[in-house]
CRISPR-associated endoribonuclease Cas2
Amino acid sequence: MYVILVYDIGEKRVGKMLKLCRRYLHWIQNSVFEGEITPVKLKELLAFAKEIMDLEDDSIIVFKSREEKWLDKEVMGKERNELGNFL
């Protein structure tokens, strides 16, 4: 599946969340990640994220799609971290 993950995490925990999300998805902008991920890996990511989060103050939103092709993406201005083909 293709996901976009957005988080709003307290300043003390944001570094840990950034490192965690980079292990599973592509960083595209501050606190925003996207990429293909299996349902099992997504569940694993969210379980680790829950350990980092303060559930009273922090939040994560995950937008899911079957495939990237079903998602229209438009970027205005400079794209922070372009996803391209590389070898």
About this structure: The first strand starts at residue 2 and ends at 8. The mean pLDDT is 87. Strands lie at 2-8, 26-29, 32-36, 59-65.
